[in-house]
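User: Teach me something about this protein's shape.
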Amino acid sequence: LLKEKTKKMKLHELSLKEQLNGLKEGSFSSTELTQHYLDRISNLDKDLNSFITVTPDLALDQAKESDKRYKSNKALPLDGIPIAHKDIFCTEDILTTCGSKMLSNFKAPYSSTVVENLSSDGVVVLGKTNMDEFAMGSSNETSFFGPVKNPWNKEYVPGGSSGGSAACVSAQLASAATATDTGGSIRQPAALCGLTGIKPTYGRVSRYGMIAFASSLDQGGVLARSAEDSAILLESMSGHDPKDSTSLNEDVPNFTENLDAPIKGMKIGLPKEFFERDLPQYVESSTREAIETYKDLGAEICEISLPNVDLSLPVYYIIAPAECSANLSRYDGVRYGYRCEDPKDIEDLYMRTREEGFGSEVKRRVLIGTYALSAGYYDAYYLKAQKCRRLVANDFVEAFNSVDLILSPTTPDTSFKAGEKSDDPIEMYLQDIFTIPANLAGLPGISFPCGNHEGLPLGVQLVGNSLKETQLLNAAHQFQSVTDWHKKLPEVK
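Assistant: First, the predicted structure itself:
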């Protein structure tokens, strides 16, 4: 049956799971699959700009090694599957830029744990994807390498900061892609590009070799076409890492094992604070349809309250800039990365390197963060923000005493036109209003497609209790077993 399906469908139309089965059964080789994606990248990505670096020689070498392992019956769990890495993950001897001029010449001397884990399971690396500079942005317009375009409509943004990863998977230029989420940077582009994106519990995936933006919020995850594909990749990425002090020493579950389990009796909470917002009619109706689908699947729906959730946005935009101010202080023109020409003295070196090497959004957040951490304002801003963060986290603790999962829209609207919000930082920040709370609480969250408005996808979000990724993936997969929104993909020419 798979061989017949493969004949009728193009290789890029197969899901990651179907590609893995096809490789195992010999329906096609990893070299064929990899070359197919490389050809698509060459032909289609010039209009999307989803990749910063493409690695054809490395990819084909890895594919040939995968084919050898299949022939000798020594295949690895993900052998031969071509994926892309967000350009925030260090990859040994490959350009790792974080979307910034500051690192435009930086070839990492080592690979991140995420890259190593996936490589040890046999994935093929097609290249590194474009992103908002140092992961700061919600539209993928702040990259030094130019904006990424949404495959559904190239006049619109793909979301950010993982917009390159989202665009390349949505355009079927890779089977799946790694991504990171600090305030919604996996789930928001997943919603805007019609994908499934999961941010696991903070500490589930190692941050070693993942270039830091805000250390207490950053978390690696997956962008894929379905919950099933996301589960397969997330399992390979996850695990305790002694090189990361925030890594959780917890066993990694088999994330695919319970995907087909019925969800009858599962309790899903609807935060009244989210549903009282003035949402566009099409966002509310698609979310309500998703809720009805869960009712049909046997889930119990109830209203809950997260009374302090409105603090999330101001709290995030104190804590994240403060941590970014500290993390980005290492880029001074001395050790590595961009360096200004002919500095007059050490002060000139520091100032001009950072002035020339950082973009405007990064500068804005560094200035805000430095101010919030300064001696006269630390207690008034940063310390107070941390106290409010605890209030937000406590609301989730209370909510999960009565429900299993929490449902909401992923974003307040569909994608927006490139440049539409560039001059209004506050309006741009509001795009993450539904996703930020999970990061502040360190909880897992998943976004998946639930509708379409005027040719642009809409997403719904589920947030789970700590370490409940299996439950999240199960609920998302059950939704996708009775709907086909995740199967709808843009026609890219």
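Now, about its shape. Residues 378-399 form the longest helix (22 residues). The chain is about 40% helix and 15% strand. If you'd like, I can walk through any region in more detail.
User: That's plenty for now, thanks!
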